[in-house]
Every structure is written in C-alpha cells, then in structure tokens.
C-alpha cells in the first residue's frame, strides 16, 4: 500500500495542507511542537479512523473550528482508491471513492497503517487492556471474520453486564447470553492463538536485527481457558464457576476480554526484568512484525514511526534503518535524521513542504 497524496483541512494544527509522497522511506523533519506528530497522526488515522493519541475526535479539530477533513489517495498495485473522512465534534463520516463506508473494517483493508510512538514503550508493563487492543486491532486488519467476532462478543458482553446489573437478575437471560458468548469466544481464542504463533515465527529474527545481536524471544498468550477440542466445556465451567462472583460484582469476570499476553526476551519477562531500552526494542519489534507476515508486497502496511530514534544509540538507529529499508512505505518523524536515499518533508510553523 502506498499513500500518494494527503490533504488536511483544520486537522490539529493544520489549517490547509496538500502534499504528495513517494514510496519507500520518508523522513518528516522539524523542531519540536511544529506539527510533525500531527502529520503522522493524520496518516495513521486513515487506517481505522482512530487516533493513537486521543479517544475524543473533537481533540483532532483545529482550535476554533467545528470540523476537520482528511482526504487521501492510496494505491495498491494497479488499484487506486480515494479516502475522505469528515470529523465533527460529535460525529464522523468516512467515504471510499465517494461512497459512504458503513464498517470501519473496510477502511483498514484499504489503508493498513502500523504505528509506533513513545507512548507505546510501556506496552508490556501497562494494563492488559492495551495488549488486548493490540491483538484485536492487528487481527481485525487481517481478518474481517475476526472483526465480526470481536464486535459480536463486545455486544454480548455489554448485554450480559446489563443483565447482571438488573435489580432482579434473570438467570435464564444470563445463561442464554453466556452460551452465545462461549460460542463466539471459541473462534476468537483460536484466531488469537494462531496469530501469536505467526508472530513468534518472525519475532526472534526481527529483534535480532534490531538489537544487532542474537536474541531469543517469545510472546506468551494466556487464554482464559485452553483453546483445544474441550474448549467449550471448559469455558462453560469457567463462566459457571464465576457466576456468583459476577452477580455480586455485577460484571463479567472471565472471557476473552480478560485475557493477556507477555513477552520473554532471552528467557526473562520483559515487563519485570527488562530495561527501558529492551522494552523499547521489544515493542518496536512487535509493532513491525505484522509487516513480515504479509505475502504480497503490494499489500505491505504503511508504517508510521513517531520519534522512534530519539532514545536509540547510533548503532541501534543503523540497525533500525536497515530493517525499515526492507519494508514498504515508511514515515519517520525526527528533529534531525539523515538517511541516504530517503524522501524528506520539512515541517515548520504547522506547515509541511516536501523537499525537492
């Protein structure tokens, strides 16, 4: 996938921006607080119409405005598509080739964007919800079936929690919802297991390249029950065993929404025994790994790396650049960075200009 053209109106600090991009590696350079991250965020927003920096779309609007607009041209081999996103303070509309998009999963298949920012570094030491979100978003981009399953499970979970909170909970209703949740959870867990296995097939080599030294590593996925042929029976028992506690706490305590995974590097848990630098490289490897699972080059995700080199020593920067050269279209923000052959976009005073 290649982002060839981007237009912004009243997005963050940009009043009007019209800029084109080349394939390969692009450096977005400028001083601090001039709009580099805002530009990177706009590119990332094309994937799921979601910001990595704010849960409220109203925060994306330039001060004093009531709406923002993003327009982009994206190519995939011989296919060319035009994306338009209208962002209001309380609403959002997405268009693909001028037609409304009703499911955001359609958008991610047109523009699959993988991002890294400094806020990602604590991923393994942060809340399990952040790690589950990584799995869900990554899988949703790869499989529309998984997106549908996750959406259905989320809806059933909301209904079951509402039933648990009722003044007089109806156990028949709770049992019926539980049965549907178990049926939905089974393929979700198997998708997650297969995806983690796929990631583990590429992570050791990738992390070795990023660190510049031989490294063993593994993602450890912990499903709420084992995902084997006896999954359904175990899942039903887990929900039944937790029912009295769920009724007392008025919330569902077991299921895919409570799962987690950890990361081991050279045999040690990165969250408890890893340094800040090791955590940074581990998260960076995890974020880039999905690129290596793509078999067709024209479907390679767009990568957006914000301030990725600021805490890396020169040796690790060189190793990272070597890895990035083997990927598809990559955008890297920095105050200063020199990479031979890279395209350059200069950002100053909330304006971005492609260097000729």
Short descriptors:
alpha/beta, Rossmann fold, Glutathione S-transferase Yfyf (Class Pi), Chain A, domain 2, 6-stranded antiparallel β-sheet, globular
Task: Count every helix, treating DSSP H or I runs of 4 or more residues as helices.
Answer: 9
Largest sheet: 6 strands, antiparallel
With strands numbered from the N-terminus, the spatial order across the biggest sheet is 2-1-4-5-6-7
Mean of pLDDT: 93
What share of residues are in beta strands? 15-25%
The CATH homologous superfamily of the largest domain is named RecF/RecN/SMC, N-terminal domain
CATH architecture verdict of the largest domain: Up-down Bundle
DSSP, total strands: 15
Morphology call: globular
Straight-line distance between termini: 23 Å
Query: What's the order of the H and E elements?
Result: EEEHEEEEHEHHHEHEEHHEHEEE
Whole-number total of structural domains: 2
CATH top level of the largest domain is Mainly Alpha
Question: What is the CATH topology classification name of the largest domain?
Answer: Glutathione S-transferase Yfyf (Class Pi), Chain A, domain 2
Unreliably modeled segments? none
Portion in helices: 40-55%
């Amino acid at each position: 996938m290649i982002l060839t053209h981007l237009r912004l109106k009243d997005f963050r600090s940009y009043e009007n921006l019209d800029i084109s991009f080349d394939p390969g590696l692009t450096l977005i350079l400028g001083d601090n607080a001039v709009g580099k991250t805002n530009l990177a965020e706009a590119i990332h927003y094309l994937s799921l119409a979601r910001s990595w920096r704010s849960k409220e779309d109203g925060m994306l609007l330039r001060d004093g405005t009531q709406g923002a607009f993003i327009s982009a041209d994206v190519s995939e081999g011989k296919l060319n598509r035009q994306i338009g996103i209208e962002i209001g303070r309380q609403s959002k509309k997405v268009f693909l080739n001028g037609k409304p998009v009703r499911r955001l999963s359609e958008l991610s298949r047109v523009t699959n964007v993988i991002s890294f920012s400094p806020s990602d570094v604590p991923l393994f030491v942060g809340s399990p919800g952040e790690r589950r979100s990584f799995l869900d978003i990554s899988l949703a981009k790869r499989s529309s079936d998984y997106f549908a399953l996750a959406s259905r499970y989320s809806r059933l979970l909301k209904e079951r929690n509402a039933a648990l909170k009722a003044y007089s909970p109806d156990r028949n209703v709770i049992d019926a919802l539980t049965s549907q949740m178990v049926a939905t959870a089974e393929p979700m867990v198997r998708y997650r297991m297969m995806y983690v296995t796929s990631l583990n097939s590429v992570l050791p080599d990738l992390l070795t390249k990023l660190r510049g030294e031989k490294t063993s590593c593994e993602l450890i996925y912990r499903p709420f029950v084992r995902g084997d042929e006896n999954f359904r029976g175990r899942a039903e028992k887990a929900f039944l065993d937790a029912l009295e506690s769920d009724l007392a706490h008025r919330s569902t305590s077991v299921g895919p929404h409570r799962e987690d995974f950890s990361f081991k590097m050279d045999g040690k848990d990165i969250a408890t025994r890893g340094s800040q630098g090791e955590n940074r490289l581990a998260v960076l490897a995890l974020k880039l790994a999905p690129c290596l699972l793509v078999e067709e080059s024209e479907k390679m995700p767009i990568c957006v790396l914000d301030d990725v080199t600021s805490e890396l020593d020169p040796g690790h920067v060189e190793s990272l650049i070597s890895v990035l050269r083997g990927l598809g279209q990559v955008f890297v923000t920095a105050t200063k960075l020199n990479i031979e052959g890279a395209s350059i976009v200069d950002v100053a005073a909330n304006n971005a200009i492609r260097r000729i």
